[in-house]
Design brief:
Elements: H1 3-20, H2 25-37, E1 41-44, H3 51-62, E2 66-70, H4 78-81, E3 82-88, E4 95-101, E5 108-112, H5 119-122, H6 124-131, E6 133-136, E7 139-142, E8 148-153, H7 166-169, E9 174-177, H8 183-192, H9 207-219, H10 224-236, H11 249-254, E10 255-257, H12 261-277, H13 285-296, E11 301-302, H14 304-309, H15 313-323
Parallel strand pairs: 1-8, 1-9, 2-5, 5-8
Antiparallel strand pairs: 3-4, 6-7, 10-11
Helix pairs in contact: 1-3, 2-12, 10-12, 12-13, 13-15
Amino acid sequence: MTLDEAQRLASRLRDELGRAIIGQQAVVHDILTAFFAGGHCLLRGVPGLAKTLLIKTLAQAIHLKFNRIQFTPDLMPSDIIGTEVIEEDRGTGRRDIRFIPGPVFANVILADEINRTPPKTQAALLEAMQEYQVTVNGIRYELERPLFVLATQNPIEQEGTYPLPEAQLDRFMFNVVIDYPSAAEEHRILSSTTRNDEPAIAAVAAGADIEAMRRLVRDVPAASNVIDYALAIVRASRPSGSAADGVPGPVRRWVKWGAGPRAGQALVLGAKSRALLEGRSAASPDDVRAVAAPVLRHRILLNFQAEADGVDADQIVGRLLESVPVS
């Protein structure tokens, strides 16, 4: 796949998503950036903002298998990865064990309200997201690629929820925040979704095209100053450092744990993917800055002082971008 072909593919996908999704251009851009980079997304927003429609439309536009998993307190790991059953041949009386795949055997997976289920069930997605396989009774089952997991969280209700462990949060490349639409966009939503006609979504790509796109993203060059900038941002997020190490005062005051090496990888890959989406042949420090918030906001753990002062992770990311110079 060439750079021009990749840009045309991205443009066609945006057009198809725009048939069903009104507004939310920044959210669509972030999700496509993570999708083409081979990462997974955590999407945070109140109900009714077309999160399910967005990911379902993406699967339709690429002709991929889509499954939705509704996470509830009684959901078990076998409800996600699948289970083994014993089958008996009535003629011979012979019994065999057969594996029945679960909903994780798909290309695009919507993990709806992932924080509604206990950590044991949440962890059932870890191996699939990282290793593209699941293990049942010591037997490994490969998952088809591409695999894209988009998990949603409702920021309003916190009763009966189980916060995701830090290890699982780190598996998500981006944490994307979806907000309310503008007045004009909401007017279009009310007008277009209360009629009989539904937009027809055409499949403009296949799974092989997405895999080729993901390989091309990794071939996009990133100069040493881009790598150094991503590294400096990640290291400046760790409060164990000093001002001489480039760690700003707000980080030392409000951050308990900073981002790890996987955040640096996500910054560089996200910058490469963003450059490719915009038709540029190389990543730049501006691309790193553009993906810093979705990459870091779920990887920076704040302390009690930050909570008392009303400081959130996005504000810390903003302070990092202000204080870390571009080399």
